[in-house]
Amino acid sequence: MLTAGAVLTAIAICGAVLIYRTTITPLAVETTTVSSPWIPKTVKHWNPIISEMAKKYNVDPTAIAILMTMESGGYARAKSEAGAMGLMQITPPTAGDIAKKYLKEPVTKYDLLDPRTNIEFGAAYMAYLRDEFGDREQGPSWDYTMELVAAAYNGGPGTAGKLYHGAGMTDTQTVVYSRDALNMWRERKAQDSPTFDRWQLRGGSTLLDKAKAAQS
């Protein structure tokens, strides 16, 4: 038979676990600034804004920096064939949803090539995707959360939904993108990232060169 003290201890432990499970936020701010040594200087160039928006939307700044690295390499005027624009490569249709639904203060007019605006839109969208697909049980590493957020960011929420429900993904680009994001996240505390190095060899260095030229 348990003593009264043992019962009270067990209740306290269960209460602590319950509080943890109901208050923890997946992929929340882990450090106040972009901390990974290998994140390129062209992305760290935007660290003050990244850190500000990370705090505002409670998304870890290194997570934001990882997606910015793969999206634009820190090149503020990047544009894709699909119409995505800026540091976080936001498409106009997605920007419309973000402006109305996911920003802390909704707006009707905005410039996606403005770095501050673009970073805020990207952080707000990541927060929405985190809330949509993140699960407290995915912690404390948040590796799977990062993969799901990246899959949704690149391939759309429907694609991440398939991954979440065990159906898998069929688009090769999104598979590679989400796995790169996952592995960079895992390697965020290391001095070097083999995943980042491979990304550069696959063409990422071109983005970094454009960013360097624009920032020099």
Features:
216 residues; mainly alpha; Lysozyme; 10 helices; 0% strand
Could you explain the architecture of this structure?
- The protein has a single domain, classed as Lysozyme.
- 62% of the residues lie in helices and 0% in strands.
- It has 10 helices and no strands.
- The radius of gyration is 19 Å and the shape is globular.
How would you summarize this macromolecular structure in one to three sentences?
The chain is built from ten helices and no strands. It has 216 residues and is mainly α.
SSE layout and pairings?
Blueprint: H1 4-23, H2 41-44, H3 47-57, H4 61-72, H5 92-102, H6 115-133, H7 143-155, H8 157-164, H9 172-186, H10 194-215
Helix pairs in contact: 3-6, 4-9, 5-6, 6-7, 7-8, 7-9
Strand count, sense and barrel status of the largest sheet are: none
Q: How many domains make up the coordinates?
A: 1
Global mean pLDDT: 91
CATH architecture: Orthogonal Bundle
- Write down the Rg: 19 Å
Silhouette: globular
Low-confidence stretches: 10-21
What's the level 1 CATH class?
Answer: Mainly Alpha
* Distance between the first and last residues' Cα: 73 Å
Estimated helix fraction = 55-70%
Order of helices and strands: HHHHHHHHHH
Query: What fraction of the residues are assigned to beta strands by DSSP?
Result: under 5%
In the CATH hierarchy, the third-tier topology is known as: Lysozyme
